[in-house]
Amino acid sequence: MALGLAVFSGWCAYRWLPAAVPAALFVVSAGGVLWLGLRPAIEVTEESLRTGKRTIAWREVRRVDQTGWISPMVVDLTLSDQTRLRLIYPGETEESNRLLRIIQQRSTAALINGVPYRQIFGEAPQAAPAAKLSSPRYRLLTEDDEAEVERLYHKLRSAGRLDPEK
């Protein structure tokens, strides 16, 4: 969308020079959105965190530092070999908070924003049998729309027909 608006603003700037300012801003915003969209996927397992081709075992994470950014989520990880890794997750706020919470809970040997893991979560959990993470459930309808669909379904069901007559 931003790229299309940039082209339109550029066309307008051909006749009216001040339109070049929004054209440049649209190009910058289109580039930023494209960059966020092309970020590698972040995959969380019981044993590790995988981002792109890099796999990081939870025991290697020594520090998890939040930045002020929630959406997109930006988190700095410091690993056992003192390398720093910046994770950027351009998801929704709720999913960003969930991912941050999982990263903090699984990094049992890490300082969480400068505070030891034990002070925040208690003792580190012992190795438990592998459990699968449930996939996120995305809301397609608002709660009001969902209630309306449910009401219409029950009304059709009580009428005795769910399919329209042919």
Please tell me about this protein's structure.
With 166 residues, the protein is α+β, with helices and mostly antiparallel strands. Among the domains are: 2-37; 42-121, PH-domain like (Roll), CATH 2.30.29. Helix content is 41%, strand content 20%. The chain has helices at 2-15, 20-37, 93-106, 117-121, 143-159, and strands spanning 42-44, 48-51, 54-57, 61-66, 73-79, 84-89, 111-112, 115-116. The chain has a 5-stranded mixed β-sheet. Helix 1 (2-15) packs antiparallel against helix 2 (20-37). The model has no long low-confidence stretch (mean pLDDT 82).
Report the count of strand segments.
8
- Binned, the helix content reads 40-55%
The side-by-side strand order for the widest beta sheet comes to 6-5-4-7-8
CATH topology of the domain at 42-121: PH-domain like
By helix and strand content, what is the structural category? Answer: alpha+beta
CATH architecture of the domain at 42-121: Roll
Outline: flat
Q: How much strand?
A: 15-25%
Order of helices and strands: HHEEEEEEHEEHH
Name the average pLDDT: 82
Segments where pLDDT lies below 50 for 5+ residues? none
Please report the first level of CATH classification, the CATH class of the domain at 42-121.
Mainly Beta
Termini separation comes to 42 Å
The tally of helices reads: 5
Largest sheet: 5 strands, mixed
Radius of gyration: 24 Å
Brief rundown of the structure:
This protein is α+β, with helices and mostly antiparallel strands. Among the domains are: 2-37; 42-121, PH-domain like (Roll).
What attributes characterize this protein structure?
three-stranded antiparallel beta sheet, 166 residues, five-stranded mixed beta sheet, PH-domain like, 5 helices, flat, alpha+beta
